[in-house]
Amino acid sequence: MEIHIVTDAVERAGVVADVFVRTLQESVGSGTVLGLATGSSPVPAYTELIRRHREEGLSFAGVRAFLLDEYVGLPPGHEQSYHRFIRENFTSHVDIDDSAVLSPDGSAADPAAEAAAYDRRITEAGGVDLQILGIGSNGHIAFNEPGSSLASRTRVVGLTRRTIADNARFFENSEDVPVRALSQGLGTIREARRIVLTATGEGKAEAVAQLAEGAISARWPATSLQLHPDVTVVVDEAAASRLELADYYRYARGLEHSGPVAPHS
Ligand code: F6R
Question: Where do the Glucosamine/galactosamine-6-phosphate isomerase domain residues begin and end (predicted)?
Answer without folding.
Answer: 13-226
